[in-house]
Amino acid sequence: MRILITNLAIANYSGSETVVELLADGLRRAGHSPMLLAPQLGPQADRMRARGHVVVDRIGQLPARPDIIHAQHTPVALGALAAFPSVPAVFACHSAVFEIEAPRPHPQIRQWIAVDDLCRERCLSRGVPEDRLTVILNAVDLDRFARRGPLPYQPRRALLLTKNHGHQALIREACAGQGMELNELGPAAGRVSERIEAELPEYDLVFATARMALEAAAIGCAVVVCDARGFAGLLTRERLPAWRRLNFGAGLLAAPATLAGLREAIAGYDPEDAAAVTDSLRAEATLDDYVARHLAVYQAALSDPTPIDPGQQEAANAAWIEDLVPGGTDRPWRVIATQNLEFDADPLAMRLAEMEERLREAILRHTAAEAARTAAAQARADADAAKARASAAQGEADAFRIQAITAATQIEALRASTSWRITAPLRGLRTIFRRG
Question: pTM for the full model?
């Protein structure tokens, strides 16, 4: 099966970028042909290509038509849906916060995937039918993330994995108070690792959320779930089932990070309990099961007998374009620009509004000018017609004058002729007779 996977970027191993690579690897191992489309490519894409993956940033570069579209991130997904209108699609929601992940109705999308219960609730709130929605929890490539050796009785080295700012100082202070060495990794730390699986075994305790927390726990580290958004606490075997259902992410981060909370989490470090967490994840969060569940959803989409209505498809494409292309000031593109591009969309929206107003004024001026030009042209036409009529009348008058002159000349010539003189007495008699 040829599966086209869309994503905003395949560049620097962010959460969705890592998921894309994991899924593509698993699909290839299962004998399928994934193709990846992302407008932003970087070192990660280069390394994936070197391993034989098809990774492109233009639809025209795809080597084949897909059998199914695995759509992530709506602006990129829109291009794939429009390019392959007869290909069914599955849409995957990876965040309950980011607008770029929000599901939107489209007749090509036959099934939806949510990565956790919070994303599931968001999909349902956006009108996704419950019987077409599947939760597929994140997984780990256990061959890549090999299990580390047993944890020490007390943690000696800690790692902060983060893509946001605001909690680093508290974690540094908490680790320093326990005499732990702390290293930092991730976009917010200014260093991104292309082989995080080689670095994680060097640490006993990891501060992270979402996929980063999952990978650290699967490899055998103790994990404190927190970031700048909030604090959950130490991951334990008791908490694991519920926390995994929320992807170790936003749904758990209800409390702010505090020094007291971090110290309590560090004090709860338990090598045996952390090992039990690792045992559970390595049994349940396998890549094989992850791929199998995706293939089942793909098959459900491909087996859907409902025909795709071209009119509904065109209307859906138009609605997506209206929402996702910069234009109206109150549409989702502004949220996407702010959240995903770290771009303040308000000035652009104001600028667009000003441009739209100027365009409307220009159209009104153009319409008025066209009306004036039309009126002037009509006036010129009327004047030309009147001039033509006057010229014709003048011609008729000139012809009549010529005729009159000709007649007068002929009369004068007649009166001067011999015949006129000879017949003069006769004309006089006719006058007498008329009187009598």
Answer: 0.74
